[in-house]
Amino acid sequence: MIAKPPIVRVNRLFKSFSRGSEAINVLTDLTLDVPQGEFLALMGPSGSGKTTLLNLIAGLDQPTQGEIWVGNELISALSESELARWRTRNVGFVFQFYYLLPVLSAYENVELPLLLLPMTAAERREQVDRALDLVGLSNRKSHRPGQLSGGQQQRVGIARALVTDPTLIVADEPTGDLDSKSADEILMMLNVVREQLNKTIIMVTHDPKAANQAQRTLHLEKGKLVRDESMPRPIMQPARV
Ligand SMILES: Nc1ncnc2c1ncn2[C@@H]1O[C@H](COP(=O)(O)OP(=O)(O)OP(=O)(O)O)[C@@H](O)[C@H]1O
After folding, report:
1. How many whole angstroms from 46 Cα to the centroid of ligand 1?
2. Is the pLDDT confidence value at 241 over 60?
3. Residues lining ligand 1, CB < 6 A?
4. 173 Cα nearest atom in ligand 1
5. Which residue's CA is the closest to the ligand 1 atom numbered 7?
6. Which of 15, 17, 96 to mutate to test the pocket of ligand 1 (most atoms within 8 A of CB)?
7. Triad 134, 122, 140: Cα angle to 5°
8. Which ipTM was obtained for this model?
9. Residues with Cβ < 8 Å from 22, sequence gap 6 or more?
10. Is residue 99 pLDDT above 70, yes or no?
């Protein structure tokens, strides 16, 4: 079997923040690869640097030192404005608290990221319909977030993240605000996205049960990778979504 080439390559990454005159080293000499189509979980104690690493890979922040490649792009060398442009096309974000706009319908929320891209209305309609269909919400298009359950709102969040056909989907505690049944559904959904669209997904989580649904879990402690666990396969059986 030919090994899949990594879609994300992080090489000797350092990130520090300054607090007054003090430098806080948050990530120290971190190297990792993420193969195309992998669902990767990042775990570790509070403050270990999980979100910082996710934000760097997603182009929301720039490293102090080291390289980050996503596909053929050395994103660690991009300026802030170049990074913003790159993110629009290449990264889909899923947040713990969904961040849907309450006055817009599910359809309009999913359509939002496409308004930044040069597309016709018909092309947008096709992509939004496809994304809502994939997350099983075709029959909730006109509902506003307030008329949907937490799990359904997060499904809208996933549809919004994948609608631009991004290179990467990043999810920071996507199940952190959900009950366990809805959390299971969301994790199943992320696995559907990975399998059907061959998307690479990187998820930060505190929940070992959530991490179990990923194919691999990297454990961080004090800004270093301390363990790399591969899961044989997702444990949950596909369920109706
Ligand atoms: N913009 C910033 N300025 C200063 N310090 C920061 C900044 N962002 C993060 N930090 C510090 O970096 C460290 C790691 O933060 P990070 O959010 O990456 O950790 P985490 O592992 O995701 O934690 P949690 O699980 O609590 O979300 C923390 O000590 C945090 O205070």
Report:
1. 8
2. no
3. 17, 19, 24, 26, 44, 46-52
4. 27
5. 17
6. 17
7. 40
8. 0.97
9. none
10. yes
Write down the pTM of the prediction: 0.93
Q: Which atom of ligand 1 is nearest to the CA of 61?
A: 1
Where in the chain are the domains? 37-61+89-230
Residue carrying the six token digits 């520090």: 16
| Domain 37-61+89-230, classified CATH 3.40.50.300, yes or no | yes
State the Cα–Cα distance between residues 116 and 125, nearest whole angstrom: 14
Name the residue of 14, 22, 25, 48 to mutate for ligand 1: max ligand atoms within 8 A of Cβ.
Answer: 48
pLDDT above 70: residue 173: yes
Compute the distance between CA of residue 38 and CA of residue 53 in angstroms, rounded to an integer.
17
Q: Ligand 1: distance of its center to the CA of 207 in Å?
A: 18
Are the C-beta atoms of residues 174 and 12 closer than 8 Å to each other?
Answer: no
Instruction: Please write the tens of the pLDDT for every residue from 205-222.
Output: 999 999 999 999 999 999
Range with the poorest average pLDDT among 1-10, 158-167, 215-224:
1-10
Instruction: Tell me the CB-side half-sphere exposure of residue 239, using CA atoms within 13 A.
Output: 14
